[in-house]
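Re: weekly structure request thread

Next one in the queue (249 aa):
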Amino acid sequence: MKRLVSLICVLAMVGGAALAGPVSEVAKSAREAAREYGAAVRNCDMGWALDSMYPPLRRTYADQLSSRDPRMEAANARRIMGTERESEAQAQARMKANSKALRDRYVKMGQDMRAAGFKVESFTVGNAVAEYVVNPPTSMARQVRRDTAGRTRVEDLKSDKDRSRLVVLPTKLVYSLPGGDGRTQRVQRDGYIFAVRDEVISTPGLARGTKLNKWYFIDSNTDVNILRAFFPNLPLNIELPDCGERPVR
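Done, posted below.
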């Protein structure tokens, strides 16, 4: 049961019905993208969750999983130390195998959740609480300004430099699962997700497999410092909504 509860946080990276309120066009686009996958949430489709994860983070998780495999330990050590070189074909094959292993694990997570009786009753995505334009380390990341009416105003950046958008979306997940006494427990979890899309890529390879203007998601369990590995100039004081869990009837 403890393992099942830990998987709930992973599931919270995908979206459902949206809540009303004034938002920028970019934030609205992010929220609409999150809304499209309510069925995946209800079905505990962890394979979709992984496929929709920001690709650089997905590759990081795949490499971490491979590094914990005793069968790969020696080969990984030789590669990292530079005593064994990979051809491009070997590197591609290794990354493909790592990605498959990670996807298999996520699919198994979803299967375990369903088998344990975990059920998503609802998942809502609220209005964005923050929206950031993230540029390379040589530039500044700045929060999008708001007009006098409180609406978010998206800056019209005409630079051809690398640029991504990061939107913080609050979420509300209501789920149920069997308790230790055999009774069904219902819980509400308030959290958030990061929606990320790359808009301008001028540096070859920087997107690392991402598609321009496609929204990807990063769940709230991801440490903000990990985000800064991908977006080094993300502000230190990014705005995040309150999180917590409580039982509901």
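Helices lie at 2-11, 25-35, 38-42, 46-51, 55-67, 70-81, 88-115, 224-230. Confidence is low (pLDDT under 50) at residues 1-22, 152-158.
Next request, please.
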